[in-house]
Amino acid sequence: MSKAKADKAICDAGLKAQSVDSGMPVIFGRQDIKYVKCSDEHGVIDDPNNVLRINEKLKLVPGHCDPTVNVYDWYVCVRNGRVEAIWPVTARGMTL
Question: 65: which residues sit within 8 A by CB, 6+ positions away?
Fold first, then answer.
């Protein structure tokens, strides 16, 4: 993440990391910031109160999971803040 302006942050999750055809991702657990637009490689986050810091980790919940899952090799399953399982996305990759 970078912060060129106090009220905006740039994250490294854009269109190649998630689908936005059903809306922008929601930032999990945060009401004070909002993912507002993206390019292929990056996303713009409104940060009106300048609360984000460089290298802060955010969890994005995509607006449409099917085309987002398509670009990853596995799900990381989290429950109560702990990784509980890793599920492979078996339909991804080369076909025979």
Answer: none
